[in-house]
Specification:
CATH class: Alpha Beta
Distance between the termini: 32 Å
CATH architecture: Alpha-Beta Complex
Number of strands: 9
CATH topology: Aldehyde Oxidoreductase, domain 3
Number of domains: 1
Radius of gyration: 16 Å
CATH superfamily: Molybdopterin biosynthesis MoaE subunit
Largest sheet: 5 strands, antiparallel
Low-confidence stretches: none
Shape: elongated
Oligomer: single chain
Number of helices: 3
Amino acid sequence: MSGPPEIEIRLVESPVELWRMVQQSDLSDGDCGAHLIFLGTTRRWTDGQEVVMLHYEAYRPMAIQQLTRLAEQAAQRWPLRRVRVIHSLGPVRLGEASIAVIASSAHRSACMEAVPWIMDQIKQCVPIWKQETAADGATRWQHPSQGMT
């Protein structure tokens, strides 16, 4: 592998579509033998409460800046060729994806270590907030340090 890693960060106004991400990713890169895709979806139960929808908001400039910084840090810590982070803003219903992280490298171990680290860092420090809507209509906001996806 030569050259700096490719980094792509996007905040989108719709649920993340896995098939579109895969189509847009260069999985045929001959320098990469590993591509790890993490997809975070809305689950039905949180802390014993039934959830019907999530809604995400962000301070966009800072969120993009911090996501870029995290992707760059991951590429420095592990020999990654490509890092993509896509996070949706707005409503995300049950089973729909709110975040995707793709890492590509020559070997699987780099991807398998980097992706969980990226997700943990996102939850801790990126200014993206999650509002959960329960089945009874009650809502509650979560701060990034409380876990966002």
